[in-house]
Amino acid sequence: MEKEEPEDNFSEWYNDIIERTGLSDKRYPVKGLNIWPPYGWKLMRNIDQMIRKYFDSKDYQEVNFPTLIPESQFNKEAEHIKGFSNEVYWITHGGNDPLDEKLVLRPTSETAMYPIFSLWVRSHADLPLRIYQIVNVFRYETKQTRTFIRVREIHFIEGHTCHEDYQSAERQVSDDIEIWKNIADEVALPYIMGKRPDWDKFPGAHYTIGVDTFFPSGRSLQIATMHHYKDNFSKPYDIVYTDENGERKYAHQTTFGISERLVGAIVGIHGDKKGLILPPKVAPIQVIIVPIPGEGVIEYCKKLLKNLTEMGIRAKLDDRDQYTPGWKYNDWEEKGIPLRIEIGLREVRDNKVTLAYRTGGKKNMLIESFMSEVQNILNEIQEIIKKNAKEKMDSYIKFIDDIEKSDDVMPNAIYWCGSRECATKIEEKTGKSILSSSEEYGKCIICGEKGNKTIISKKY
Amino acid sequence: MEKEEPEDNFSEWYNDIIERTGLSDKRYPVKGLNIWPPYGWKLMRNIDQMIRKYFDSKDYQEVNFPTLIPESQFNKEAEHIKGFSNEVYWITHGGNDPLDEKLVLRPTSETAMYPIFSLWVRSHADLPLRIYQIVNVFRYETKQTRTFIRVREIHFIEGHTCHEDYQSAERQVSDDIEIWKNIADEVALPYIMGKRPDWDKFPGAHYTIGVDTFFPSGRSLQIATMHHYKDNFSKPYDIVYTDENGERKYAHQTTFGISERLVGAIVGIHGDKKGLILPPKVAPIQVIIVPIPGEGVIEYCKKLLKNLTEMGIRAKLDDRDQYTPGWKYNDWEEKGIPLRIEIGLREVRDNKVTLAYRTGGKKNMLIESFMSEVQNILNEIQEIIKKNAKEKMDSYIKFIDDIEKSDDVMPNAIYWCGSRECATKIEEKTGKSILSSSEEYGKCIICGEKGNKTIISKKY
Prior knowledge:
homodimer; alpha+beta; BirA Bifunctional Protein, domain 2; Rossmann fold; Translation Initiation Factor IF3; 3 domains; five-stranded mixed beta sheet; 12 helices; 34% helix
């Protein structure tokens, strides 16, 4: 059976490849709750570790808050609860008895953390406070669920900060954007980033910066957000500090959210008809060694494996007897391993390795050159994956100057004046949402006034 | 105010030191749910990483299962539910609507995993299956809660395996014991280990091996368990494989559980009147450098810090201006940093370092010798901590041959014949529980028949 390109029937391809490669097991008997099997969890954990590195480098500290939030605390932020009250799970009983106070499974941790921040933050010397946690959060999604994209238990990375004033919080948003750029680089994902329209910001946020990427289906996927909260939360939660003049002031806050959607984006954006393509920086296995049976081959492979492992390369030797080399090639290509090394009699005789890039192309090298080049080769593959993805994304987004020419499903770039009125017309005409705008100007596609270059798309 | 030795008033000392050093924040407004602030979470994460290393080395694979378990699945194992039904949290509503099927917050993951194991295990080639996860589990504790010891949200490391037969599962228990020994070594904790009496095993287990350590209060704390489940779970959950002869057989299973109690044990067992004493192998900061102000001191310290960090040592320089060196010494001693380096004018002049061991004693060394010795010095401190703890534990457990001489609160060693009848008498007379027995024989303290050396204690 001819395998399909992801573009052909994206949804089917996506669901199928996730299960077949062991990234997720969807047979758990509750809608929207999936199992992370070893391969998928290793990928997620590599991403988590990488994210920790960048948060730590910007003086964030990791913490871990309880999963359960008492109703009274959850209800305190009226605007916030408005955003989540219809999609939270409620715990009403402990053992056989009703609880004195109902508990919410956190949908995000503002209402768990902020009453405690009000104890942690006393003086200007306690600021800035920068913490993050990597936890699961829960949303009772009523929309259709989709692995990694829209699930009811979400693997979530959430940063929360407190600052002296509006400007310091704004500088934090810039820091978070820097962190994001590094993360995006390591997962090789292209994206657009910008302020959401006011009506589409996070409940309680002063403003929201959204990061979106695009699937081959043409739909956009929000993969990160940064919010400036101003003092919207510090007021109800009483996060107050004494400044250098002894004056009591409300802290200004930000948050930064990233989730398992990164895995979904890696699958959907880098994959091809052969299966996954994993960026070397986060791939659970970076190098797979496949022996072509012959005298001395296995010993040669084992030595190669040992040397690569000692260099810190995540390498694996596939020495299973029951499969042919060809079968193994397909298997590891499907699983997205960036670099395959084929070793047969010829390689052993000539002290060589034959390399097959998951991104295409083969190469023959002396083993010594390979050992000194392997990290560069992996970096090269990382760059190819990044470049391919960026080119694909750019090719999806067609500029239009007539709203009637909006593509059926693919995203478009337009000029938009920023008004709610024109936005409504755009959204009604196209069935698409406004994502974000950039500093490039032209005539608004609706009213003809000065507008910003703006991306519109159907969303996941 | 004179600080107290942990022995003097253990409970108060324990609660106090945990809060003061930032291992836990107990001000979260739900009983039994605590916050892990940065210092405590770093310690827990170091322990997690260390545990991963040993699980991985025995061919366990890490996974992540959903937190929520549907009622029907939870109820399937009647004996198991009997063990937990009174202490689980129930989720009854999603948003404003009652759920079609109630969900349980996992108290442990047998009932989440085993229906899936029945899909994963098909043939003998799928066995052994060895997986673990590091997650939070939830118990609606009605007893008094105590940080790290008895909480309602528990940081938990759980291993689950499936095997062809009883013997292979028993070999797994031996492997788990080996893993445990390595873990105990890295946290420098002494323990006793052995089979629990039948009436004290885990619900559903064929037998349970318990690992206990002892607090200065004399009470014992269970810090790890290994269970052989036989086919007790594989039958209700239908975990069946086809053997080499095509016959269908039930798998035999084991589990292995460890929790945040390890942190509680580290606090309670290694600590002294000055505060925490953290084993170097898991300490968030292994070496603290304290400058005694003077010309060239800070530069000297910074270079030292850089060199230590490059060697992979977790070192920190305390260059805060507002505190005296003496204040800093106390602060870092309280936080349990294994090794302090004091640098003043004399050290700079003579190219030396002055070392203060958290376990006692000072030393002056040339900086070159120190740099080549630092790992050995940390290992030496690790061994001292381990030895001190072992000696303390041994001193708590007094042997008695007359049940009337049982200590009030401290544990005792006795001979016990193994009968339920004598156990009941022992427990009634002493108010203590039987922990485990070893292969040393004498006359049962009750009936005079042949008995095993057995430890009894009051438990946490």
